[in-house]
């Protein structure tokens, strides 16, 4: 599968937008503890993998898993250390050769596999030890909750997301589905935590600007949408997006859903 956001600067974007304090709170809530063996599925450039390793030390180990050769090489170069290993794997295939884990973490990955998400979670269940924890984290209404922007721009963004859902197997509503996946796979002690991920109002900061601009430059431009609302196509859309996104009156939010369950013994 071709990754929707693939570009030469993707490792940089992922590292820049990662809030380690927020992720630490999420995995601590989910039950991550020192001494655990952990799988970080869809580890990207490895920044979160390194965080999780610090949290399971002393005595814990972690395997970062990603399908991208470039991201795995970046992770090895920047975060390779005793107790951390990185594996290039296709997560749509069984991962049984990695052994079993006390804690399996997958964040902002399932949204890129709308039609295969449950199959992936089923595969991950097989590498969770009985009594171990599976933690799923994803967004709901991704990029769809915006107010104070021109109606033409809002309609274009909604149409782009619908096209990505249809043609790129992207799911902007993945977060709402996580609980049912764990329920259907007979996990126990399921719990859910919801908080704001994107929360943009007032003056735009550099990280928000860079993250969203790269999404428009990569995903929106390459999705095949014709931008017929705009006389000069994508360039007109991009100009209106930049202007509206910089307006301190606009309000944007996206909920993040964290769902954890314990595999039956």
From TrEMBL:
Any Pfam family the entry gives: Methyltransf_31
Span of domain Methyltransferase: 33-145
Gene3D superfamilies listed in its UniProt record: Vaccinia Virus protein VP39
Protein name: Methyltransferase domain-containing protein
Species annotation: Desulfosarcina widdelii
